[in-house]
Each structure stands twice: as structure tokens, then as C-alpha cells.
Specification:
The protein is an alpha/beta fold and 132 residues long. Helices cover 35% and strands 10% of the residues.
């Protein structure tokens, strides 16, 4: 009788196995598109993200790594500070970037899963910051 403690689980075909990124933690810092977490890190003397893993520029490598792992889904979040750097002003370059990201995920045979808000937002237009 086979040892069931070492058997490979069988998942239904609809099961999504994937990886996830968070824009602030992965995308490289760009002073034109600072977000609230950048301010928080600086004010609290925390480690700033700087180049992070440079997902903004190197996403193709990460998508390939996920594909090589056998993933069938890839979750990412949108950086609103890049999409809408000033309230009511939208950045076509950022929308094009995320469109290309989605196309590359699909071309790699994975389902893109978009997180619309990952607890960051732009700082432009803000007039006063709390000291805490």
C-alpha cells in the first residue's frame, strides 16, 4: 500500500498556482511618482525601497521565472502614484506599462490577477502631513 503522506495532491484544473508582487515593494523608486509609503519610510527613518527588485524595468525576468516554476497565475498591484500622479491627471505611459505587463503574463500562459489598491497612494496634491 502506498504511503499517502508523501503523495502529490491533485488540484482541480481551475486551481490557480502563482506568485504575487506588490508595487511598492518591487517597483523601483521614481521621485516623479512618490507614494505615501515612500514618505512614511523617510519620516520614520526606515529602509527606503530605492531600486527594490526593479520590477518596473525587469518584470519580463520575473514573469519567466514564474513560468519556469509552473505557475498559471501572476498577481501584481497597480501603483496609483504612477497612474494618477496628480489628482485628475493620468499618466498614459504607466497605463501602457501595465498593459504590456498583462500581455506578457498572458503570453507566458498565466492568468494575470490585478490588485487595484495595495495600501499606497500618491502624495501629490496633499497639503499637510501628520507628524506621526
Amino acid at each position: 500500500m502506498p504511503d499517502s503522506s508523501h503523495s502529490t495532491p491533485v488540484f482541480p484544473p481551475s486551481f490557480l498556482f502563482g506568485v504575487a508582487t506588490a508595487d511598492h515593494q518591487c517597483e523601483a523608486y521614481d521621485s516623479r511618482y512618490e507614494d505615501i509609503r515612500d514618505v512614511w519610510e523617510r519620516k520614520r527613518h526606515l529602509t527606503e525601497r530605492k531600486r527594490a527588485t526593479d520590477f518596473w524595468n525587469r518584470y519580463a525576468e520575473d514573469i519567466q521565472l514564474a513560468k519556469d516554476l509552473g505557475c498559471n497565475s501572476f498577481r501584481f498591484s497597480l501603483a496609483w502614484s504612477r497612474l494618477e500622479p496628480v489628482p485628475g491627471e493620468f499618466n498614459d505611459e504607466a497605463f501602457d506599462h501595465y498593459r504590456q505587463l498583462i500581455e506578457m503574463i498572458r503570453a507566458a500562459g498565466m492568468e494575470p490577477i490585478m490588485t487595484l489598491h495595495h495600501f499606497t497612494w500618491p502624495v501629490r496634491g496633499r497639503t499637510r502631513w501628520p507628524d506621526r
